[in-house]
Amino acid sequence: MDMLEDLETLQFEYGIQEEDHSWLYLLGRSHGLMTKACAHATFFCKLLHNLRESFSRKSLQEKQTSRCPLTGLREDTPDDDELKVGIIGGGHLGKQLAHTLLQLVPIPTDSLRISTRRPEALDEFKKLGIQCFYHNSSLVEWASVIFLCCLPSQLSNICVEIQTSLGKACIVYSFVAAVPLPRLKLLLNHTNVLRPQYLCVEDLASIWGANKEITAALQDPVILQATCPYSPAGGIILNIKWLEGVFYAAINVCTAKDMPHSQVLQLLNELFLFKHFEACEKDRVSFQKFQAQDFVSKAYAKNLSRKRPFPWFDLTAVQLKETPFSQYLSHSTTFQDNLTHLYCDSFGITLTKEQEPEVSTGSSSQ
Predict the structure, then answer these.
(1) What pLDDT, in 10s, does the model give residues 13-29?
(2) Number of helices (H) and strands (E), helices first, in the chain?
(3) Which residues make Cβ contacts (< 8 Å) with residue 51, sequence separation at least 6?
(4) Do β-strands 236-238 and 198-200 pair in parallel, antiparallel, or remain unpaired?
(5) HSE-up of 29 (CA within 13 Å, CB side)?
(6) Torsion angle of alpha carbons 340, 345, 346, 348, nearest 10°?
(7) Nearest to 193 by CA among 154, 228, 147, 151
């Protein structure tokens, strides 16, 4: 038992003057933003992990049918389907994100690396077997996803360091809120960029707390539901254009594998639609499967042969402009409901009908 746990004199608020108590909401807002940001990054990595698992299964099936003509044994090929995550920045956000990804995706320790100016301050991660160093360009060359957890003042120099090492398929996920997408695209000379945007309302709910570890917070059903992409609960609203970016990023991952668009659609249907409706046979007929025209124009889809991949999408443009998928997301309430269930299920929490959160479409401005 921790005898000091609830001691009033050790609480953060104890030393604050009464006239300054009105500013304490900023502490909750900061913690809420970090919790929501880490939750969405975790969901994104879970999606990429599931995509790559599907690639591995498909590759294994192909290997089993491909035998060496002389020995009758299947030929081994390097496995490049593993999700490799790099974090640039070892401050509070970078550490919280690393802990969350390790525990809740979960990402193996040899698939996560951190580049920071002070790698000696990350002994807790080194003891787990995670490589911590200060070499941003080598991290980018290795990783399939890069999380930018640096200060705005550091971003320009970091972009200069890494832009020539960025592969086309590498996804850059920025937490640098002060730098907008057009500026990021310019600095990185890269279009495969995601940047979530959050709006805080005046009456911020007190559900976030200020002392709870992010991984523990995301096991709390109330907090987890507040992080759902369509949920306005908690007073922090996600711009839903991020979700469009997530889908198009997943399509780009498949396009990098030269996967026919018909297989991509089948994969997205399996990941986002079928799983929930397997348990809801009554609702199964009420949803519409993804089609090519949900992601590209009708004219382009009409001329897209089954074996051709989707085009490569500029994720910065996806998050800044209207897309065919914008209409799908805004009008399909069945999908919104399904995504909420899928999101909570991915964190190990199953929603009942009474627990379903209120839905918000979020802001579309950047």
Answers:
(1) 545 545 444 545 556 77
(2) 15, 8
(3) 250, 253, 254, 267, 271
(4) antiparallel
(5) 15
(6) 140
(7) 147
The tokens describing 340, both together, are: 């909420």
Per the structure block, which two tokens stand in for 341? 């269930």
Residues 67, 73: Cα–Cα separation, whole Å: 5
> Residue 67 has what DSSP assignment?
B
CA 254 to chain centroid: 16
Judge contact between 187 and 163, C-beta under 8 A: yes
Q: Which amino acid is at 157?
A: N
Phi and psi for 196 in degrees, rounded to 5? -70, 145
Contacts of 80 (CB under 8 A, 6+ apart): none
Q: How far is CA 252 from the centre of its chain?
A: 15
Residue 255: Cβ-neighbour burial (10 angstroms; 0-12, 13-18, 19+): buried
Helix pair 25-65, 333-346: axis angle to 10 deg: 90
The C-alpha atoms of residue 109 and residue 290 are separated, in whole angstroms, by 35
Cα distance between residue 192 and residue 199, in whole Å: 23
Crossing angle between the packed helical segments 92-104 and 25-65, to the nearest 10 degrees: 40
CB of 28 within 8 A of CB of 200? no
pLDDT digits (tens, 9 = 90+) for 298-353: 999 999 998 999 999 999 999 999 999 998 888 878 888 889 989 999 999 887 65
The one-letter code for the residue type at 179 is V
